[in-house]
Design goal:
By secondary structure, the chain is mainly α. Helices cover 66% and strands 0% of the residues. Helix 1 crosses helix 2. It is elongated.
Amino acid sequence: MRMERAYRQAIKCGQLFPDVDIKLVAVTENVYFTGIISSWLLNPTSFALSERAAVLVDNFLYMLINSPFLRIAKMD
């Protein structure tokens, strides 16, 4: 719920498009970061989390801003 509030605030500030599906973004965020952490915990030698953390966060933010699949579908 806290992240949903943060996404609503980002929309108000113009940092996100107003048609972003906030609930879908919150689920996507949880799955994305849980998956990264789980993968690293299962095999910490597979990638250097501390070295890759910034680019992984950047990738999520890029997806959040640019993915049409995270927007509310418009009905014609």
